[in-house]
Amino acid sequence: MTTTWTAAFRSAVLSPGENFKLKEPRGFAGQTLRQILHLDGGGEGLRVLLSNRFGDRPLVVAAARVALRKSGGEILAGSDAPLTFGGAAEVTIAPGGEVTTDPVPLAVDAGTDLAVSLYLPEETGPATFSHTPLETGYVAEGDAVSASSLPAAEEIDSRFFVTGVDVLAPEGTAVAVAFGDSWFEGAGTSHGANRRFPNLLNARLERGWVVNQGIGGNRLLTDEVGRHALARFDRDVLSVPGATHVLLHFGLNDIGLGAASGERVPAADELAAGFTELARRARDAGLTVLGGTLGPYLGTIYPGVDTPEGQLVRREVNDWIRTSGVFDAVVDFAHAVADPGEPDAIRPDLDSGDHLHPNDAGAQAMADAVDLTHLHLS
């Protein structure tokens, strides 16, 4: 059987500075960073992707290891292996740069939790990061990459420097990229439980898998939290090895965050033009495109986000998504989680409590709304 490097985990990253408002920048020095990565797919070996994409200085990684996670920040005895870089134990990643580790002959299955430990001896400066991984990370003093457990470690709720894991999977394995906002990244679902929409969709698949490139707060047309979808499409979709499909959910932040900031709410035809361009670029690259309707958010607790104008635009865009024929298939996320008595609102039992994000049951309803015959992974 021929195998090839295929994306089995992805984590879309952000700049700690420009266009980011949700968390204060974080840096590290003389510390070990252990992070848990829940694999979407499995294979005969793996490699890890590290990024200093938004760093303001060289990032020195003096030691790195990968292991199977036992529980919390503890690794499974005998499972850990060094991560090397062109045969060297240490690597320096230039500002704006990324590196891929040498292959590790560790067989892993879908659903495996990896623990990746990085020793960062020098000041990193503000770190390239993912702000809502919904998984606890661990920061220990000194070089603790080989420690089986980190009992005195600080617990953190962001992910830093790690952007992905590739595995050696059978050639032709299908991979869908969930490319979107917080509805894909998983806001509103249970921390550490892997109940995000892509996780639950993966549980329905008999073969192939979905990797998550969602960014909470991300927009389709303009930068806000991270580069907008049109600007990051090549990096976060087309560069994913093995990608065959892309699922889209964008627009809520263009409408709601724009309104809350006093900006002009984009017209439905502007959002439609953005989606049309994404679909064109995906098809040009040979990908199957699934467009998702914009989820409901009536009565959200976030000030200024819910406006009559915005609700009208959302309805118009959803009508267009359902009927335009621009996509190879449509996933009606809005219908899946809407309150039948008030379709602009999330059904109460599917609401995380902020009236904007689905809870675990809502994410399951989203996953169940995907017609697997359109996804062609199962």
Helix content: 10-25%
Mean of residue pLDDT values:
96
Q: Strand pairing plus helix content: what structural class?
A: alpha+beta
CATH topology of the largest domain: Rossmann fold
The gross shape turns out to be globular
Distinct helical segment count: 9
CATH homologous superfamily identity of the largest domain: SGNH hydrolase
GO molecular function: hydrolase activity
Protein name: SGNH/GDSL hydrolase family protein
Keywords: Hydrolase
Domain SGNH hydrolase-type esterase: 178-365
Annotation keywords:
22 strands, Rossmann fold, alpha+beta, 9 helices, 21% helix
Characterise the protein shown here.
- The protein has 378 residues and is α+β, with helices and mostly antiparallel strands.
- It has two domains: 8-165; 174-375, Rossmann fold (3-Layer(aba) Sandwich).
- Helices cover 21% and strands 28% of the residues.
- It contains nine helices and 22 strands.
- It has helices spanning 182-185, 197-202, 229-238, 252-260, 268-284, 308-323, 333-337, 360-368, 372-375, and strands at 3-10, 31-38, 46-51, 59-61, 63-71, 74-75, 81-82, 91-93, 98-100, 113-120, 129-130, 137-141, 154-156, 159-160, 162-170, 175-180, 209-214, 243-249, 288-292, 329-331, 338-339, 342-346.
- Strands 2, 5, 6, 7, 10, 12 and 13 form a seven-stranded antiparallel sheet that branches. The chain has a five-stranded parallel sheet with strand order 17-16-18-19-20.
- Strand 19, helix 6 (308-323) and strand 20 form a beta-alpha-beta unit.
- Helix 3 packs parallel to helix 5 (268-284), helix 4 (252-260) runs antiparallel to helix 6 (308-323) and helix 5 runs parallel beside helix 6 (308-323).
- It starts with a strand and ends with a helix.
